């Protein structure tokens, strides 16, 4: 691909934001549903 440096940086920032939003969604889902606490390491989720 013939992308400029700016477009590559924007792509990396967008992908990183998507990953962080997915992680926050997963954390929220686990913490709001106690029935899943037994199968998840809560020490990692609460960090």
TrEMBL record:
User: What residues form the membrane-spanning segments?
Assistant: 9-26
Q: Which UniProt keywords apply?
A: Membrane, Transmembrane, Transmembrane helix
Q: What is this protein called?
A: Uncharacterized protein
Can you name the source organism? Acinetobacter johnsonii
